[in-house]
Amino acid sequence: MTDKIRVGIVSFTDPRSVDLADEGEAYNRKCHEELAAHLKAAGFEVVDPLAKRENFFSIRSTADVNYCVKELRSSDAECIVLGAWKWTDPMLAVGLVRSLNLPTLLYCESDVNWTGIGLMSAIGAGLWEIAPSHSALNHTRIRANKDKAVAWAKGVGALQKLRKSRLMLWGGSYCLRMEHLQDDASKLKSFLVGDILNESEYLLIRRAEEILKSHPLEVEGFIKWLEKGGAQFNYDGRMLTPESIRSQVALYLAARRRLDELEGEDIRGVSIHCQPTLSLEYGVTGCGLPAFLPFGFDHRGRQTMINTTCEGDIKGLITSVMLSLIHGEAPAQFGDIREIEVRGKRMLVISNCGASSIYYAANSGDPEKVLPKVRICPQCQGASGAAIGYYGEAIDTVTVARLVRIAGEYMLHVGVGSAVNVTKEMADSLVWGAVWPLNVVDMDLDMDRFVEIMGSNHYSMIPGDQSVSIEYFAQEAGIPIMRIDG
Fold this sequence. Notes:
Blueprint: E1 6-11, H1 21-41, E2 45-47, H2 62-74, E3 79-83, H3 90-100, E4 104-108, H4 116-130, H5 134-137, E5 140-143, H6 146-163, E6 166-170, H7 185-191, E7 195-199, H8 202-214, H9 216-229, E8 232-233, H10 242-261, E9 267-272, H11 277-282, H12 288-292, E10 297-298, E11 301-302, E12 307-310, H13 314-327, E13 333-342, E14 345-350, H14 367-370, E15 375-378, E16 386-389, E17 395-406, E18 409-420, H15 424-430, E19 439-442, H16 447-453, E20 458-463, H17 467-477, E21 481-483
Parallel strand pairs: 1-2, 1-3, 3-4, 4-5, 6-7, 6-9, 8-15, 9-12, 18-21
Antiparallel strand pairs: 10-11, 13-14, 13-20, 14-19, 15-16, 17-18, 17-20, 18-19
Helix pairs in contact: 2-3, 3-4, 6-13, 6-17, 8-10, 9-10
């Protein structure tokens, strides 16, 4: 779904003439290459400026440091792993970190025959003494745990990509006077996101009207794609009509057209204000955007997957993009939260008000698996339009998260649980919003505690236990973590 996180890797060796120099260099190379291979297998683009060097391939001089800095900069590495396998002059490593100013991991093995932890401690202490940057002062140390190194790279790499990204708010923020959907954009741009763009929803309305007038076959092609794929249409002649669904599809196509016009802006997430400008004044909800933009396919084939939230929710959008960048393949699920009782146990419902990524209809990016499970039903709010719903399916492990701000200070809420199969009986028990997309998460919540700390009526979800990567993301960003599970 996303471009790969670029992880730099370098190793150091002793610049002195010492015993076992050849054996030490062989050990360096072995450790270095094994770690590089593990990172590459995990889906990263590994930037290895030492890969083509022969003999003493490790860094052993200031000239070597300068060479590696140049190579890593030119390759746009987003974080750097320093192999601390055996002794070197610590200032060589400190100088490289100081020059690059990237999120930094010191990594060693647990081989008692060499001096890994000694070098790690010396480099780390030097970084603390000099403290040339936030990344240097807050560097991470991992010993003999390559999977944890992968989690670190996912977390800090996601942060680096987010810091270079742009988010688009169509219609702005502060929907229905929900203050917590707003934020301090300048503050966010100082440490967390590249830019937050604002455009009127009229840009989409104008393009949608032009598409309906001049390219009606494009709209019909999308609807036929849904029908052929097995999506269920439940027309009622009032809310969901052929005319209202065409308007919703046109708005989705208009959003794709606008994103194409902004190619090169590196927009990784969008939000649609919707209420009441679209839902009432224009006369149709914008549910096609959160349903189909974060999916990656339509009637024309593969499309860019763009995480999408509703109601101008800035922190929800940042959370969703973060989760998706960490995962690397899936979009985040986003929605309103409520509670449900399943087999005598209270669980969390994530169910957006009309639509969210149809990926979660089958936990897949394959339209042949997803579309037969999508239900297009009359919306229960707005002037007209469809809710694009489904019953979420089980996922062994999921992570639920939300960026929260209290009195101007940020924190990340994080919880890990499992998604359960949603049944029609479960949906019907909810009454309001039963036609919306429904995901139910079991996190062993203490519901009374949860209601005391909830930071929004919106939370986001992603497959897998991503909590360690989120902790590294937060550590690098300078944001505390609060667990919401258990």
